[in-house]
Amino acid sequence: MKNEIYKYLYHELADYEKEGVSLSMEGDPASPMQIVEAHMMREDIAYMRDYVLDEEGDIKEVCFHHVELQEETAAVDTPQNNKKMSK
Fold first, then answer.
1. Which of 10, 11, 70, 73 is spaced 20 to 30 A from 31 at the CA atom?
2. What share of the chain is helix, strand, coil (3-state, %, to 5)?
């Protein structure tokens, strides 16, 4: 399943690149393969996309920035978490 996701991501980014869209990761230029490899190697980190548009509203750049994830239990509103917080 994950391999299919990575293949799709690679093809999507390669298509952007063919259209002349610049790709970057953490502020540095990156190829589709570099971006996919970063996703594969660091599965515990999420990446947020930032789309930069030109004057006509077309995508001219796609930037990837890593996002810190909170622990799953901290983000889930469960009765157990509510009891802990109310004490």
1. 70
2. 45, 25, 30
Q: What is the extent of the structural domain holding 13? A: 2-86
**For residue 41, is pLDDT > 70?**
yes
- Whole-angstrom distance, CA of residue 83 vs CA of residue 47: 32
- State how far the Cα of 1 lies from the Cα of 80, in Å rounded to an integer: 33
Please give the angle made by the CA atoms of 51, 53 and 56, to the nearest 5 degrees.
Answer: 155
Domain count, the chain: 1
Of residues 83 and 20, more confidence is placed in: 20
Phi, psi at 11, each rounded to 5°: -65, -40
